[in-house]
Amino acid sequence: MLYLNEKEIHKAITMEEMIDAIDYCYSIYSTERFQMPTRSQVLDGVNTLLVMPAITTQAISTKLVTSFPKNLDYPSIQGLVILNCIETGRTKAILDGSCLTAIRTGAIGGSAIRHLAKKSAHAVAIIGTGLQGLYQAIAAVTVIKITDIYLYNRTNSKLKPFVTSLRNQINSDINIHLMESVEEAILNADIIITATSSITPVLPDNKSLLENKLIIGIGSFQPRMRELPEAAFHLSNQIIIDSDDAIKETGDLQIPLSNKWISENQIQTMSSHLTNNHSPNYSDNRSIIFKSTGMALFDNVAAVSIYEKALQKGVGQKLN
Question: What homologous superfamily does CATH list for 119-291?
Answer without folding.
Answer: NAD(P)-binding Rossmann-like Domain (3.40.50.720)
